[in-house]
Write a structure and sequence with these properties.
Low-confidence stretches: none
Radius of gyration: 18 Å
Structural class: alpha/beta
Helix content: 40-55%
Order of helices and strands: EEEHHHHHHEHEHHEHHEHEH
Oligomer: single chain
Strand content: 5-15%
Strand order of the largest sheet: 1-8-7-2-5-6
Shape: globular
Length: 234
């Protein structure tokens, strides 16, 4: 099956406030926390592979049960090096998938295909009305600098936590609590935006309302409905 394994069922583009986050409903929002991949910057691993691999091979790579691709990504997001992850894949899945993953790491830059439409202006509008904006992303410490160098939108945030740099990854509640403590954010006044349901569950466990993102228009409308005075689309 293609895509991240163990994703729970969850509605898209609505405020999710379960677990400890239920206590946050109705509170004003002072801080918006953004994931990076497919929220601010598009990430498409298939795009990194197209120079050498067929569509059929790429589809197999992106089936975690066949290749272990997403398990390998999880390991790197938690602080494991590219080299050690490739060695682990070679031992557990074989040379074919280890070699493909090595190619992916070497050509990671091609997996970053642009800024998500509307994201730059949304951050600009939030900052203009005094809302604090932060980043919390699962990302390899080795590969993140590629995105950091290419995308100015990441620099527009007031601060960031990258999982591979602290060896803790979402959806572990510890990484959300680390972000809250590091930047002095009150969980009950924050909203977290991510494209993965499992990470919204993790945010809720830390007391943070979440939005599983797919639609830039709906995201802006939801933030306005939450009481943030930014311009609506016309």
């Amino acid at each position: 099956m293609k895509g991240w394994p163990n994703e729970p069922d969850m509605d898209n583009d609505v405020i999710i406030a379960e677990d400890r986050a239920a206590e946050a409903l109705g509170n004003p929002v002072s801080d918006v926390i953004f994931d990076f991949g497919n929220v601010l910057v598009f990430w498409d691993p298939a795009a990194a592979m197209m120079g050498r691999y067929s569509e059929r091979s790429i589809d197999s790579l992106l089936d975690n049960e066949i290749s272990g691709f997403y398990d390998a990504n999880d390991r790197m997001d938690a602080g494991v090096s590219c080299a050690d992850t490739i060695a682990w894949l070679r031992q557990t899945k074989g040379d074919e998938w280890a070699d493909m993953f090595a190619y992916y790491c070497e050509n990671f830059v091609d997996s970053l295909t642009g800024v998500v439409p509307g994201a730059r202006k949304l951050i600009e509008d939030l900052k203009a009305v005094g809302i604090h904006v932060w980043g919390l992303s699962n990302w390899s410490a080795e590969l993140f600098p590629i995105a950091w160098e290419r995308y100015e939108i990441l620099h527009s945030l007031e601060g960031k936590v990258v999982s591979g740099e602290i060896d803790i990854r979402k959806p572990s509640v510890e990484i959300y609590e680390y972000l809250l403590q590091r930047f002095g954010i009150e969980a009950r006044k924050a909203v977290f935006i991510d494209d993965k349901a499992m990470n919204i569950v993790g945010a809720n466990a830390a007391g943070i309302r979440g939005i599983r993102f797919t639609d830039p228009y709906k995201l802006r409308a939801l933030l306005i409905e939450s009481g943030i005075d930014i311009p609506a689309v016309r």
